[in-house]
Amino acid sequence: MRPGVGGRYAAVMATVDRLPAHRTHEVTNQPPPLQGYDLFGEDTVLRESVAREGGEWGLERLGAFGRTVGGEPLRLGPLADRNPPVLRTHDRFGHRVDEVEFHPAWTSLLRLGIEAGIPSLPWREPRPGAHVVRGALLMMLSQAESGVSCPLSMTYAAIPAIRHAPELAASWEPRLVDPDPDRSALCGMAMTEKQGGSDVRANTSRAERTADGYLLTGHKWFCSHPACDAFLVLAHAPGGLSCFLLPRLLPDGERNNFFIQRLKDKLGTRALASSEVEFDGAMAWLVGDEGRGLSTILEMVNHTRLDCVLGSAAGMRRAVAEATHHAAYRSAFGARLIEQPLMTNVLADLCVESEAATLLAIRLARAFEPGAEPAFQRVATAVAKYWVCKRATPLVAEALECLGGNGFVEESPMPRLYRDSPLNSIWEGSGNVIALDVLRALARDPGTADALFDEVALASGADERIDSALAAAKETVARQATRPPGDVEYVARRVAEKLGVLLQASLVVRHSPPAVAEAFLATRLSRGGGLAFGTLPRGIDCDSIVDRHRPRMVK
Ligand SMILES: Cc1cc2nc3c(=O)[nH]c(=O)nc-3n(C[C@H](O)[C@H](O)[C@H](O)COP(=O)(O)OP(=O)(O)OC[C@H]3O[C@@H](n4cnc5c(N)ncnc54)[C@H](O)[C@@H]3O)c2cc1C
């Protein structure tokens, strides 16, 4: 050491010691992370909806699940997302293995969902309200990780389709509904091919009859969670497009000729493995009749469409929870954001949209009680799938902005919510296809439109705006019957949107506090607001709306 250096060092250190600790790193005006909160207890709208729609007996179970999901799973979701699955096609000796490796966080969340009964509850405990309680379970787990709901949802949805083949159902159903993750099985679906997803009649996969079943040859362009134990797939049999159950392992334990080509590099739901697969003479068994594949698999699709609605409502709820929480803690210009008039307008508008989405999603779940209200279920599924899923992305984008720059940073939950949000609108029928399905449902049987309008009419007399919107909707639907097909298709989104808003209006007027109902009617039904969120008119009690939706942490 040169002479004098030691002395100067000591002098500098003495100065540093006199400085206040971490002078450049004081953290103020940042909210605590929204963790350790009760996802059910703090979600007034979900609790009220479940109780009203027949799920009162499940409130305790849901409360326990809400407290569980609000803890560790909220941390596991992002961990799974940051550690996406990896495909191993071959072992080190060159044998095909077709295995997907998942991060333990994903596996924990999947097991949690199986144990809670998300794939199985209504099939194991077929009592009124079972689809509602199960819908609420799905909504909560989705808020921790939305991708994990995909295999859980597909398994739930596969049951009614597999029941078209009683022998297969007898051997598969006990495992599919088993809540023990070590014994249970999962079922996926594979319809989409390279040349056509919406138009599955364009499928080129072929099924050749054999003495034992069928041999399938072809490919599928999207097959989510290829680690499932079985898949419902479409292929052309001699009698036409048919539905098959294709297991990954054959009854003798050998691997089926089911090959995973690659995993998709996706915008969102990155923890969920979505793959491209090929069948090279894969063994499969017919479900339903040959040539009736589409109507058989539609039983499954209908149930997964319900889950798209529940999943979108869940994403909206999580976004609103984060936005209202942030605004309650963050101050700017001398006041908390939640107290600033314009921010309360934005937050209340988001809360209203989220509330309407939850109300419709849980009401729709009740319509899935077997045989309860088939006409309403048919049309309301399409209407809600179109409208609720369509609203998710703009809502999440606006909620993200409530967090300012923090909302744009990957450490916050908002970017993941944002990336995940468009999926439900694409999967199981993209927006246009679903809007056209709304028209198809209405045209096929006049009783279907009546079922929808009867539900809306339960709010008749409560508010003149609903009465006149209902009359206008009836006229619009009647008019479609007289129009040429091209004309009808052209306006399909307008019709689907109007019906979605009308259905939600009827629900909020009957079940939400007056402030929420008034905000909804004034802006969604009467178009008294602007195009962006945060344009509620004067006179709305925004504070009470936000207070209803803001979660409080328990620790
Ligand atoms: C993450 C993810 C996971 C998926 N998992 C699975 C899975 O497990 N199994 C599976 O089978 N599929 C799966 N899919 C595929 C998905 O269901 C399809 O992508 C979807 O059905 C659309 O089909 P497509 O991609 O072929 O688009 P296309 O059918 O080509 O449609 C493209 C666009 O055209 C529109 N369009 C289509 N027909 C019409 C029309 N007549 N009039 C006006 N517009 C029309 C559609 O609305 C869409 O906007 C998954 C997709 C994603 C993104």
Percent helix range: 40-55%
SS-derived structural category: alpha+beta
Task: Name the poorly predicted regions.
Answer: none
Largest sheet: 7 strands, mixed
- Tally the beta strands: 11
- The tally of helices reads 21
Task: Report the bound ligands by name, code or SMILES.
Answer: flavin-adenine dinucleotide
How far the N terminus sits from the C terminus, by CA atoms, comes to: 54 Å
Output mean pLDDT: 95
Percent strand equals 5-15%
Shape: globular
Radius of gyration (Å): 26 Å
Which properties best describe this structure?
single chain; 555 residues; alpha+beta; Butyryl-CoA Dehydrogenase, subunit A, domain 2; 7-stranded mixed sheet; two-stranded antiparallel ribbon; 11 strands; globular; binds flavin-adenine dinucleotide
Could you walk me through the main structural features you see in this protein, from its secondary elements to its overall organization?
Among the domains are: 44-176, no CATH class; 187-293, Beta Barrel (Butyryl-CoA Dehydrogenase, subunit A, domain 2), CATH 2.40.110.20. The longest helix is centred in the middle third of the chain and has 37 residues, at 293-329. β10 (331-332) and β11 form a beta hairpin. α11 (341-366) packs across α19 (492-511) and α16 (446-457) runs parallel beside α19. It is α+β, with helices and mostly antiparallel strands. It contains 21 helices and eleven strands. Strands 3, 4, 5, 6, 7, 8 and 9 form a seven-stranded mixed sheet that branches. It has a two-stranded antiparallel ribbon with strand order 1-2. Strands 10-11 form a two-stranded antiparallel ribbon. The model has no long low-confidence stretch (mean pLDDT 95). The structure holds flavin-adenine dinucleotide (FAD). Flavin-adenine dinucleotide (FAD) binds next to β3, β5, α14 and α15.
